[in-house]
Write a structure and sequence with these properties.
This protein is about 0% helix and about 35% strand. The protein is mainly beta and about 80 residues long. The chain starts with about 35 loop residues before the first strand and ends in a 6-residue tail after the last strand.
């Protein structure tokens, strides 16, 4: 296998140049007071009795991490 060049060798690896990217510095914005920023989270889960997936929309306060409300539906439209 080595004669046919099928094995990777450390010396054969070509160094790839990485692009300069702007990485996210903070995943959560700095909230100074409660209810300054809200976070919307959509999860889907399988409902065995209906044999289909349902969606759960949760609204969370970033500062206090309080769950403000939830909405469950079979489909959630952007309106």
């Amino acid at each position: 296998m080595g004669e046919e060049g099928l094995l990777n060798k450390a010396s054969d690896k070509v160094k790839q140049k990485r692009n300069k990217r702007n990485w996210v510095k903070e995943l959560v914005p700095p909230a100074k007071i409660a209810f300054d920023y809200l976070e919307f989270d959509i999860k889907y889960f399988y409902v065995a009795g209906q044999n289909r997936n349902a969606l759960l929309l949760s609204v969370i306060d970033v500062k206090t991490r309080w769950l403000l409300g939830q909405f469950m539906a079979w489909e959630i439209k952007h309106q």
